[in-house]
Structure formats: structure tokens, C-alpha cells
Specification:
By secondary structure, the chain is α/β, with parallel strands linked by helices. It is built from 12 helices and 13 strands. It is globular.
Length: 352
């Protein structure tokens, strides 16, 4: 992290976390943040579910909920970008405060509750998206919806023509009973509607499923079976956790989903287990606690074809994606790999 970025982070941390987040997005949009541009190499380039990524380090959903900073984010060193979550209708989310820094744990707790401007506003921004980036949308359901499964399909049908991929998010702990949709029967029905909406697009796109880290081995096996039967393009493992094990911060008992460093081991074990039960037949995207190139490399060796990050930027700045991509290139070269794909799952057994 450069001195100027360190100074900027210090200033942002004087504000409450949600205000700081908004200021960071504004700084991006107005060109006040130095950006590294495209980061790639023959070793970093990889293909996941038909998406040709310049590098395997992506931005997780949640940072840019309303697709407001697509152009600058496309120049921030990420190999791909996921915006959202977006619901059919705009909704305010849960009352503030709803975002908490846990610096003692290098962690974050959020209970936003899918606050967003809705699919109409999002589609207008996606319509003018940069064409040289890989951009996906995290699909959500309205809190007061009578048919949450239908909500996911509606957002995809409305925004899909502007996307490179979409993610079905049934794993946020901040919308009541949303995680109940991870059960085999409910999930199968939900994905049937989403995949039908995908197939109606003039150019069908990959659809991923984002799961929680708080699942048993039996539940992971069920999800693997449903994913294969539904012809999903991949699984994102994982979203935030409701666990609070081993935390030191005085804010550790705030309600919401925990992300950041404490999630790394838990989410990587889920990733490895999912890789095992799917037999490597479905691409996996590793998320949870990534703050270094070594973290990203560990996820890949545990079974991830690519990775995503978000929370660590709160402590390490926006230059983190480029730093991790460059470091990952070095680690792959050190171990004799010519491509990212060669390293996928090579140390899965270490996490089982």
C-alpha cells in the first residue's frame, strides 16, 4: 500500500463505515483514486464457465451495489466484477447502523438487508457499462416479496442482456428466511425459474449460485447434486457467516454476516468439501477472508478456479486486487505452474 493510499484509508476510517463506503465510491467515480489498469499475464489468464478472465481475482458483490462505478472498477486490477445484490423493486434495507468494522479481527459485520435502487436503475447503468470488462450481477429478492424465487428470475430477465454472468444469492443472513432457499427442494424450484429466464435471453450467460459457509457436509452434497441437475455454471463459496467464534472486537456480537480474516479457514474448508463432492465437475469461485496473494493461492489449490474479495479492501485499500494478482503470478511461477488452471485443487486434501 502506497503512502497516499494509506493516508486516504486513515481519513476514511474517521467516518462511520457506511459513510466511508459511500465516500470511497464517490472518489472512484470522480477519478480521485489512482488505478493500476489491467493486470494480466499468460499465467494469470484463465477461463471459467466460458468467461475469459485476464486474471482470476474478482470483486465480490456488495462493494458496488448499484453499478455506480463500473468504469473505474474495470481499471482497478480486477479480472472480473460482480455488482449488486439487486432486487426487482428498490428497497432501503435494514436501519442504520448496519456496517461495523472489527479492526482487532481484520473483519467486518454487515446487516444491510439488500439495500439497493432496484433493477430498473441498475439496468440503466449496466446499459452503458465498459465493454472490455467481465461484469456480473448478484440477484436478490425483495424482503416483502410474495414469491422470492420469482424475484431472482425477474431481475435476470430484466438485466441479463447487459451482463456476462449472474449469481443467485440465497445465502445472505440479513433477509429473513432467505437461507431456507438453500434446501434441495426449494433450491431446485428456484433455479428452474432462473435457468428458464436465462435461456430466454438472446445470449444466455453463465449462472452461479452463492452459498453460505454455515452448511453441513450433507447440505453441501445436496447443493452439489442440485447444481449438477440444474446445469449451473458454477458455485460461489462462500457468503458471510453467522458464526462469531474466536473474535476479539467489542463489536463482535452485532447482528449480521461476518466477513474478513476470521472467515478464511471456514470458507476454504467448505470450498474444498464442495470440490470433493462435485468431483471438480462444476467451477468453484472461492470467497472469504482473502487479503493476500497467499490467501488467493490457497483457495485455488483448495479447488477454486478463481476468487473474489471485498472486505479486505477496507483495511488494505483498492490497490489490493492488483497486488494479489501480481503476487499470485509469482506464486504460480515459483511452483512451476504455467496456468492458474494447473493449480486448481492440487492441495484440496489439506483442507478436508
Amino acid at each position: 500500500m502506497k503512502a497516499l493510499e494509506k493516508l486516504g484509508l486513515g481519513l476514511l476510517h474517521r467516518f462511520d463505515p457506511e459513510t466511508a463506503h459511500g465516500l470511497a465510491l464517490k472518489a472512484l467515480r470522480f477519478g480521485a483514486v489512482p488505478l493500476p489498469g489491467l493486470v494480466t499475464s499468460p499465467r494469470l489468464r484463465t477461463e471459467v464457465a466460458g468467461l475469459r478472465l485476464p486474471n482470476p481475482v474478482g470483486l465480490a458483490a456488495g462493494f458496488d451495489k448499484n453499478a455506480q462505478a463500473l468504469l473505474p472498477l474495470s481499471r482497478a486490477g480486477f479480472g472480473f466484477i460482480e455488482v449488486g445484490a439487486v432486487t426487482p423493486r428498490a428497497q432501503p434495507g435494514n436501519p442504520r447502523p448496519r456496517l461495523f468494522r472489527l479492526p482487532e479481527d481484520r473483519a467486518v459485520i454487515n446487516r444491510f438487508g439488500f439495500n439497493n435502487l432496484g433493477m430498473e436503475a441498475c439496468a440503466q447503468r449496466l446499459k452503458s457499462r465498459p465493454r472490455n470488462a467481465i461484469i456480473g450481477l448478484n440477484l436478490g429478492a425483495n424482503k416483502d416479496s410474495d414469491d422470492r424465487a420469482e424475484d431472482f428470475a425477474r431481475v435476470l430477465a430484466h438485466c441479463g442482456r447487459y451482463l456476462d454472468f449472474a449469481t443467485v444469492n440465497v445465502s445472505s443472513p440479513n433477509t429473513e428466511k432467505l437461507r431456507d432457499l438453500q434446501g434441495a427442494e426449494a433450491l431446485s424450484a428456484l433455479l428452474k425459474g432462473v435457468m428458464e429466464a436465462r435461456d430466454w435471453l438472446s445470449d444466455p450467460i453463465p449462472v452461479f449460485l452463492k452459498i453460505a459457509p454455515d452448511l453441513s457436509d450433507a447440505e453441501l452434497s445436496e447443493i452439489g447434486d442440485v447444481a449438477r441437475a440444474s446445469n449451473l455454471s458454477g458455485i460461489i463459496a462462500t457468503n458471510t457467516t453467522v458464526s462469531r467464534d474466536g473474535l476479539k472486537s467489542p463489536k463482535s456480537q452485532e447482528a449480521g454476516g461476518l466477513s474478513g480474516a476470521p472467515l478464511f479457514e471456514k470458507s476454504t474448508r467448505v470450498l474444498a468439501r464442495l470440490s470433493q463432492v462435485t468431483g471438480g465437475q462444476i467451477p468453484l469461485i472461492g470467497v472469504g477472508g482473502i487479503a493476500t496473494a497467499e490467501d488467493a493461492y490457497a483457495k485455488i489449490c483448495a479447488g477454486a478456479s478463481c476468487v473474489q474479495l471485498y472486505s479486505a479492501m477496507i483495511y488494505h485499500g483498492l490497490s489490493l486486487a492488483a497486488d494479489i494478482a501480481h503476487g499470485l503470478d509469482d506464486l504460480l511461477a515459483r511452483d512451476g505452474y504455467e496456468t492458474v488452471a494447473q493449480a486448481v485443487g492440487t492441495k484440496r486434501q489439506d483442507w478436508l
